[in-house]
Design a protein that fits this description.
Structural class: mainly alpha
Distance between the termini: 23 Å
Strand content: 5-15%
Largest sheet: 2 strands, antiparallel
CATH architecture: Orthogonal Bundle
CATH class: Mainly Alpha
Strand order of the largest sheet: 1-2
Order of helices and strands: HHEEHH
Number of strands: 2
Radius of gyration: 12 Å
Number of helices: 4
Length: 71
């Protein structure tokens, strides 16, 4: 399993850190673990989910609708 920080997740998905943090606040993404310093860590599933959510958003599906689907 790969462990991604917010910045690494953003880089690998081709989005900004701001977008990842926004998706976290909306409940579209969730860390699978935390470092001892309290930083969220994400896995490969989170990376796939981020790519899916971004593609759906770019296809015209609103973030509120996506958040309802992801809960």
């Amino acid at each position: 399993m790969s462990a991604y920080t917010v910045s690494r997740l953003a880089l690998d998905a081709g989005v900004s850190v701001h977008i990842v943090r926004d998706y976290l606040l909306r409940g579209l993404l969730r860390p699978v673990a935390y470092t001892t310093g309290g930083y969220g860590l994400f896995d490969d599933t989170a990376l796939q989910r981020l790519r899916f959510v971004r593609a759906a958003f770019e296809a015209g599906i609103g973030l509120d609708a996506l958040a309802r689907l992801c809960r």
